[in-house]
Amino acid sequence: MESLRFVLPQSEIPTHWYNVAADLPSPPLPPLGPDGKPATPEQMGVIFPMAILEQEMSTERWIPIPQEVREIYRLWRPSPLVRAARLEAMLGTPAKIYYKYEGVSPAGSHKPNTAVPQAYYNRQAGIRRIATETGAGQWGCSLALACQMFGIEARVYMVKVSYEQKPYRRSMMRAWGAEIFASPSAMTQTGREALARDPDHPGSLGLAISEAVEEAASRADTNYALGSVLNHVILHQTIIGQEAKKQFEMADDWPDVVFAPCGGGSSFGGMAFPFFADNAAGGRNGKPVRLVAVEPASCPSLTRGKYAYDYGDSSGFTPMMKMFTLGHDFTPPGIHAGGLRYHGASPLVSQLYREGLIEAVAVPQLATFEAGVTFARAEGVIPAPESCHAIRAAIDEALRCKQTGEPRTLLFNLTGHGHFDMSSYDRYFAGELEDFEYPREAIEESLRHLPDFA
Amino acid sequence: MESLRFVLPQSEIPTHWYNVAADLPSPPLPPLGPDGKPATPEQMGVIFPMAILEQEMSTERWIPIPQEVREIYRLWRPSPLVRAARLEAMLGTPAKIYYKYEGVSPAGSHKPNTAVPQAYYNRQAGIRRIATETGAGQWGCSLALACQMFGIEARVYMVKVSYEQKPYRRSMMRAWGAEIFASPSAMTQTGREALARDPDHPGSLGLAISEAVEEAASRADTNYALGSVLNHVILHQTIIGQEAKKQFEMADDWPDVVFAPCGGGSSFGGMAFPFFADNAAGGRNGKPVRLVAVEPASCPSLTRGKYAYDYGDSSGFTPMMKMFTLGHDFTPPGIHAGGLRYHGASPLVSQLYREGLIEAVAVPQLATFEAGVTFARAEGVIPAPESCHAIRAAIDEALRCKQTGEPRTLLFNLTGHGHFDMSSYDRYFAGELEDFEYPREAIEESLRHLPDFA
């Protein structure tokens, strides 16, 4: 019986992360402070440990993974690479479809790949508490898990409406020992002001970020952690693509096209950048692997945004970063259930896209859930709505192969399971979801609010 | 870096199930029909396919696993055997603790191990629909998944109170294409009568079984499937223990004691029986492996029940089986959140216990959740409440080893993850759960209702 799952031994857990900054045609542009000058490590050191900031700025190609981090990775890594043979048969395609399954982590997604080293470096720096924000709860869970592993207190500001509507993500964080506050909370000045303006304030991700950053900035023993966008986050996620490459060697195969969902950019960068390393060196088989970022049509930063300096958060508290952005106050419509709601794409992903080294495609919401259900019926796993974006694009490519007869090898990043997103599937089954594409004017309007240094 | 996860290649997925009936000191006692005579295959053939009935009656030691079933197992099997090194360190025990993790199946538990062959044999017999019942939804999900894989319609009668309180298990079944009815339903005579008596009837597992059996018995194209208790179900689950044995060989180790949660008995039998095969042959290392069934103190069929013929369901529709039972109308208290609510233990498990070949222990509820949280904080995975019973017993043994200094090797069956049971954890964290032990008189009372042939 042919093997469909390719599982590396634990001795093959990569020893280094891959830093794409070493292979960029031009150096990455620095983040800018409020005065328009490059933000200094001293400024950012208020909320991040120096080891993280060094990674954020580094242009070294290989950065060693600390032994203590690999020991935690060992709890679920290497994650499996799986040949989706039943999906291929269901589609009747000559394409070979593989997926890398990150849902095997205890938190159910790829996010712990960076939460663990972030907790580790903070612990090394003597930090006892990390404050962060979470929307639906995926990042908050991952940080709670990671902090538990290193004996750090995790304090999670959870957008109030999610706090009330997603109690199970909350219980999961609690099981791992985190403290969770509905944001806006009475714990911070920002939260108290918001509550004074509106005692029934539903919260927002921007506000929760502000609360977490305020707490981190005001206490010497407390730092802040972010789950996507920044260079060090994507660096940590490159363990995904590196493992995938080794697993393709096991399978004696190699992808022609790689798909990953793209919101902030960490699941895309984590999967695609190690393949880009080969492309930068001329292509492994003499031809480059196509790398496709898949974003929602209702939050299309790469395909419809502007390449400009913009704030990382909606309130304008963070340094400005050069990235494809829809404007920092852009908000996807309420009808959008599929995650990937960030207004920009990570600077590294943006730069590669700008230079024509990766591709991007936007997919409509209903088609992503349809792809998720097709996948679940063929392969069993019920995918997270974010992952459904990559599945949609991979299925579309497989169907093109069916028309042309080309036996391409496709790979996608199955970033997580959907066990905590079944309410989104419910809305899909009930016909309550719709496709939405922003009119050009709406995007132009939010792009008018870009900062002066854009 | 030492390996903590032992993952077999897919070529090592077992080719046969192990039938413990071949190694019992005396032959299993047959189920009895309403007249007190052994139930015939013809009687049971109304709702089960002949291939399943043959397995139910078989005393062959090895029964081949069809290739089509192994191909589906391949979607998630072999499941990992994991050394819980962080848990050992947290407990400060000289014991080595391993767990076999069945939560990697798409449905999140060990149940698909039997749902898949049951769907396969029904499909082979030309059956187009399978009706079943589900309480919390774990079994319903597994059957929905399995039926999807073989193109069979799954019709799941879900206890109404769970249908309303556990919408996400329902969405999961729907994602796999099943039809779900709140029981009592208007689909069956049994359901209509119950609704006529009480339009707000909350449903019960006994009633849901009756509805599913009625539908299966009344339609030639429809059969019934059960997720535990029966011999063929435990037979299918022996893939767990067989894999575990191969994985211990990989790890160059061998368990001294094996723990598994025990409700109906399939997760215990599935894990323990392959080790019993060695015990029956004199013990692999010249000494037997201790096999410990762990049940809830509030539903203690093995440790406090009576070994007698009793009905398999609460309404008395099924054949009678010789088993340890608390009485077919025994119901655990509402305060009991941890699953394993069945009134009896499978006839095979019961017979081995009666003959002193396995052990049993009952654990109180609060201690099981405490063990689950300890495990989650050490190892990451949030365990299903059922699995927490085995974890409790394994931790207790590890703590005894700490006192005595004995470096025993322990194995437990981590039967599933707790992603759909977070509301039980919530009740635990909120202090809403209590320990409950039935007074002797209450058990004696329900044992007074045993059938005449007991």
Q: Care to count the β-strands of chain A?
A: 15
Q: Biggest interface and which pair forms it?
A: A-B, 47 and 47 residues
Multimer state: homodimer
What is the CATH architecture assignment of the largest domain in chain A? Answer: 3-Layer(aba) Sandwich
Question: How much of the polypeptide of chain A forms β-strand, as a percent range?
Answer: 15-25%
**Strand arrangement in the largest pleated sheet of chain A:** 1-4-5-15-10-11-14
End-to-end separation of chain A in angstroms reads 57 Å
Individual helix count of chain A: 19
Model description:
The structure is a homodimer of 454-residue chains. Chain A is α/β, with parallel strands linked by helices. In chain A, 41% of the residues lie in helices and 16% in strands. Chain A has 2 domains: 265 residues, 3-Layer(aba) Sandwich (Rossmann fold), CATH 3.40.50; 160 residues, 3-Layer(aba) Sandwich (Rossmann fold). In chain A, strand 6, helix 6 and strand 7 form a beta-alpha-beta unit. The termini of chain A are far apart. The mean pLDDT of chain A is 95. At the A-B interface, helix 3, helix 6, helix 8, helix 16 and helix 18 of A face helix 3, helix 6, helix 8, helix 16 and helix 18 of B.
